[in-house]
Design goal:
The complex is a heterodimer. By secondary structure, chain A is of the alpha/beta class. Chain A folds into 2 domains: about 140 residues, TIM Barrel, CATH 3.20.20; about 30 residues. Chain A is built from 7 helices and 8 strands, in the order E-E-E-E-H-H-E-E-H-E-H-E-H-H-H. An 8-stranded mixed beta sheet of chain A has the order 2-1-8-7-6-5-4-3. The longest helix of chain A is centred in the last third of the chain and has 14 residues. Chain B is of the alpha+beta class. Chain B has 4 domains: about 100 residues, Alpha-Beta Complex (Sulfite Reductase Hemoprotein, domain 2); about 150 residues, Sulfite Reductase Hemoprotein, domain 1, CATH 3.30.413; about 90 residues, Alpha-Beta Complex (Sulfite Reductase Hemoprotein, domain 2), CATH 3.90.480.20; about 140 residues, Sulfite Reductase Hemoprotein, domain 1 (2-Layer Sandwich), CATH 3.30.413. Helices cover about 35% and strands about 20% of the residues of chain B. In chain B, the strands form 4 sheets. In chain B, strands 16, 17, 18, 19, 20 and 21 form a 6-stranded mixed beta sheet that branches. Chain B has a 5-stranded antiparallel beta sheet with strand order 1-2-5-4-13. In chain B, strands 3-14-15-12-11 form a 5-stranded antiparallel beta sheet. In chain B, strand 4 and strand 5 form a beta hairpin. Chain B is globular, with a radius of gyration of 23 Å. The model of chain B has no long low-confidence stretch (mean pLDDT about 95). The chains are: A alpha/beta, B alpha+beta. Chains A and B meet through helix 3, helix 4 and helix 7 of A and helix 1, helix 2, helix 6 and helix 9 of B.
Chain lengths: ~170, ~550
């Protein structure tokens, strides 16, 4: 499954560690939430980056205390129809100030990229190669946005107000 | 009218390009039908019994004549020369070819019309009072707020994959013509004691298989905070709404299961934590949107022009005027409802020729503006009273002067089994038969206001629960049967109708409705007592007795 990070297909430096599987000695690891929470302090002390795969039906409160020390959070789309992780992503970025890697996993398809980028995701485990290859062009398919999110894109309303302001300043 | 600017137009065009690419990928097999299904639904495309059905949004029910002509053109070019206006200020085309859909969308985009989120599990077309901006006594034009919400809900990055569909309706009049109490969120605009504009917010209303009247979650939310408050409701719903069972996924079930108090606390908690996230609508922002609505330059006209006095001698004109013409907030003007319920025809259908003709009449008599109401009728919102006789003649020539607005033949009906893949039973032929039974206008006027609503299945697209008489199609051993409810209403006093007894077969429905109406005529205590009020006073028993005594 191709990984898209910062807009490009790239090698995944994180190793997915399944429940019960042995931890690699070093290197970046992505852990299931339950396993991480069992022994969070020890895991965060090990060499190598630590990321957590957070299920979409679990409250973020249990994760928040560790956010500052996590290199990555992976959120889950069990089906592309299940949009809970969009809320989690925005809360992590906009309310809890998480600035590490925010990864979309599960059924990640081309037609979700723009929504995901706007919600704060920056890394994507993309289901299909063709979708991953189309990432850069798809990300540019929209230039107008109505809602303010934490991604910094100006909303239509802001642009209108700016326009109005500059017009009245020019008079 | 709201004038789209370059940004609105750009976004619609970008959506068309995206959809064109999606259709291309589907036709090439790159997208599976399962993957494509959600994408097409988000653009109003259903797969029905015979063909793809295409649902186009008419936000808050406002159309320009140019836009109506574009809809007529789509009906002609891509469909079979007609369209069907729905109960949520949309229009549906029933015979569209998938490969041609992107072109149809592109044609509509040229006049600022889109089909975004007219289906799928997202925030649907924001609806409002079809008399917005012209109704006497209105607090203010609710379309300003509808447009603010339309923009905010369009391609929302967080709420485009909700547990289920989500519908918002807004009214700013005491008499609710937008059925806000049967929406996921209902907003009633009013001014508080300090004179500030805000909303009573209702949540969890809806019909379908588990009908609920919306409950007040907050008695007053200031206008500047309405987006953040709606956002808080949606965020709670997106995270906690049920996704395990499609029939329990609407917000009404979450509200019901948690109880309105607990749900309200959750929303309040989220709202507080949200803080300032750029959703506060300061005065200048609201005025920016308001400034892009244009209003007619009304003339100073007499209350009772000579043209109207003369025409009053014609009883046919007077009948139509008495039925279809309503007071306007400006002296000398009227609101005219155009009935799309002629005798024997499917409710809410209009041919492309009729749409073009109405567009022309709107240009001549209504400042180029047309409205669409949830009753599946059209409306010309600014007609000078002196023009009423001419307008009536013109409407009559195109078969659109049936004087049955709000009467027994002004039936709301879903497409039913004639088109819909979900339906258990037909709706349209029942409506057609009823319009023939009550075709005599004197009888219909004698009966007075009576809303019949027909749904071909439990999904309740015909809003049968809130019809004064509701007719619900069910399937029994492979046969079409119908359950009859009475006493429902969709307005500010919204309530669900009560079932009168066992379902009846297709062939008996019209007889039963006639029995119910005859019972009402015999039982009402005076001619002014409406059917729905008589049911309230008497309960369902006497009607039930009448219907089942001989069956």
């Amino acid at each position: 499954m191709p990984l898209v990070k910062q807009g490009r297909i790239t090698t995944d430096l994180f190793v997915h560690v399944a429940d019960g599987a042995e931890l690699p000695g070093d290197g970046a690891i992505l852990l299931p939430a339950a396993r991480f929470l069992e022994d969070a302090e020890a895991l965060l002390k090990r060499a190598g980056k630590v990321g957590v795969i957070w299920p979409n039906n679990r409250d973020l409160d249990d994760l928040v205390p560790y956010l500052g020390r996590l290199a990555a959070v992976a959120l889950v789309f069990p089906s592309f129809r299940d949009g809970r992780a969009y809320s989690q992503a925005r809360l992590l970025r906009e309310r809890h100030g998480f600035d590490g890697e925010l990864r979309a996993t599960g059924q990640v398809l081309r037609d979700q990229f723009v929504f995901m980028l706007r919600a704060g995701f920056d890394t994507f485990e993309v289901k299909k190669n063709s979708d991953a290859e189309a990432f850069a062009s798809t990300a540019k398919s929209y230039s107008v946005f109505y809602q303010p999110t934490g991604d910094g894109r100006l909303t239509a309303l802001h642009r209108r107000m700016q326009l109005r302001h500059s017009e009245s300043a020019g008079q | 009218m709201y004038a789209y600017d370059e940004l609105d137009r750009t976004l619609i065009n970008e959506r068309v390009s995206e959809f064109r690419d999606q259709v291309k990928r589907r036709l090439s097999g790159e997208l599976t039908e399962d993957e494509f299904k959600m994408l097409r639904l988000q653009n109003g495309v259903y797969l029905q019994l015979h063909a793809y059905m295409f649902r186009v949004a008419i936000p808050y029910g406002t159309l320009s004549s140019k836009q109506l002509r574009a809809l007529a053109r789509v009906g002609r070019r891509y469909d079979r020369g007609y369209g069907h206006f729905t109960t949520r200020q949309n229009i549906q085309f029933n015979w569209i070819k998938l490969a041609e859909l992107p072109d149809a969308l592109a044609d509509l985009a040229e006049v600022g019309i889109h089909a975004m989120q007219t289906s799928g599990n997202n925030m649907r077309n924001v609806t409002s009072d079809q008399w917005a901006g012209v109704a006497p006594g209105e607090v203010e034009d609710p379309r300003i707020w509808s447009e603010i919400l339309r923009q905010h809900t369009t391609l929302h990055p967080e709420f485009s994959f909700l547990p289920r569909k989500f519908k918002i309706a807004i009214t700013a009049s005491e008499h609710d013509r937008a059925a806000i109490k049967v929406h996921d969120i209902g907003l009633r605009l009013y001014k508080n004691a300090e004179g500030e504009t805000g909303f009573e917010v209702l949540v969890g209303g809806g019909l379908g298989r588990t009908p609920f009247i919306g409950k007040t979650i907050k008695p007053f939310v200031h206008g500047r905070d309405i987006l953040s408050y709606v956002e808080a409701i949606l965020r709670v719903y997106n995270q906690y709404g049920r996704r395990d069972n499609i029939y329990k996924a609407r917000i009404k079930i979450l509200v019901h299961e948690l109880g309105i108090e607990k749900f309200a606390r959750e929303v309040d908690e989220e709202w507080k934590q949200m803080g300032d996230v750029g959703l506060t609508l300061d005065h200048s922002v609201i005025e920016e949107v308001r400034s892009r609505f244009s209003y007619p330059a009304y003339e100073k006209l007499p209350h009772m022009p000579d043209e109207l006095k003369q025409a009053a001698h014609d009883p046919l004109f007077e009948r139509w005027r008495g039925n279809s013409v309503f007071p306007h907030k400006v002296q000398g003007y009227s609101i005219v409802t155009i009935s799309l319920k002629p005798v024997g025809a499917p409710p809410g259908d209009a041919t492309s020729d009729q749409m073009d003709a109405v567009a022309d009449l709107a240009d001549r008599y209504s400042f180029g503006e047309i409205r669409v109401g949830h009753e599946q009728n059209l409306c010309l919102p600014h007609v000078a009273k002196r023009d009423l006789p001419q307008l009536w003649k013109a409407l009559d020539r195109i078969g659109l002067a049936t004087p049955n607005v709000n009467l027994v033949t002004d039936i709301i009906a879903c497409p039913g089994l004639d088109y819909c893949s979900l339906a258990n039973a037909r709706s349209i032929p029942i409506a057609q038969e009823l319009t023939r039974r009550f075709a005599n206008h004197d009888t219909a006027e004698l009966i007075g206001r009576l809303h019949i609503n027909i749904s071909g299945c439990i999904n309740a697209c015909g809003h049968h629960h809130v019809g004064h008489i509701g007719i619900l199609g069910v399937e029994k051993n492979g046969e079409e049967f119908y359950q009859i409810t009475i006493g429902g209403r969709a307005d500010e006093g919204a309530q669900m109708g009560t079932l009168i007894g066992p379902a009846i077969p297709y062939a008996e429905v019209a007889d039963v409705i006639e029995d119910i109406v005859e019972a009402y005529l015999a039982l009402r205590d005076r001619p002014e007592e409406l059917f729905v009020d008589a049911v309230k006073r008497l309960g369902v028993e006497p009607f039930k007795e009448r219907v089942y005594a001989t069956r």
